[in-house]
Task: structure prediction
Amino acid sequence: MIKRIKKKQLEKILKISKQFLMIDHASVSKKKKSLVAIKKLKRDWIYKSHFIKNPVFPGSLQIEAMLQASVLLIYTLEKNSKKPILITKTSSNFYGKISGTGELTIKSQINKNKKGMVEVKASIYFLNKKKMSDGTFTFINPNKFFLSK
Result:
């Protein structure tokens, strides 16, 4: 079953204001423990604020988009999403420059889930073609009750 999540729900689940939300909408597959999120890039504050004469979508915001998608995936699968989770490890790679308008596709997949630790692999594609970045993120639940099976 695929669950679709719209922007208003994203703000509520992630507790992030719309100005810094790096996802416009998402679809979660509980069976596959995966998520596909979309962010439409326009000529907005990101490009007006970063490398003004040669604007790009910053790597730090790409990481933020992957983190938001990963946390959204975990919170959607978690029975009690009000419990805070902590990120303990991150690694990321960048393969090209994102500039101009278009659609970012952020894909997240749970790799490991045991003993209160969840590892998520995420990737970003621009204009739904080329992989622009990816990362692996490890999260823990301080209460050690995570993603009940």
